[in-house]
Amino acid sequence: MPAIRVRLLTAAALAAGAVLALPAPASAKACVTDDWKLTRYRMTATGQDVVISARGGEGARLSITKKALSYDFTRAKKVVTEGADNGDEYTMTSTYRKKLHFASTLKGAKKGSFSLKRRSATGDATVKSLFNKTPLRAVKLAGHYRNGNVDPFVPARHTFTCAGKTLKLTATLTDPVAPATVTATYHRL
Fold it and tell me: May I ask which residue range the UniProt record assigns to the signal sequence (predicted)?
């Protein structure tokens, strides 16, 4: 009888040791780190004698990791900007295409912020615009950002809230003439 008891105790100890030796589960990834599809974009800017609003871009894809952020504009709809500057009204229609990548700094999981490292911009993304039906020069976005510029459709700094399948981004663009607020809503792919 004592031999059986020793074997049972040894088996129980080995089983307990095996359970304790199991690796801990990997920590869950942050809600924000995933692949997203744009469902709503709005930009508004107001200043003295200046009023601007923009909408569109639905279908653009956004991929966020802890250290990088990538846009894919392949399926993005046009962004339409309407404005009035000192009484002069205008409409600008912008078409974004191809891909744009950045190294970035992410803070938070369900609520927080991220900042693009503009000098890290790579990719072949372009934006072509019509200003009151007059074509403007196409802009290569990676070079645009590396030169210290920003495009309102892709702000350099965002705050975010993430819940379930929805990611909401907010950005404030400082401009001495007409500061702007950008909001974007993405759906998890």
Answer: 1-28
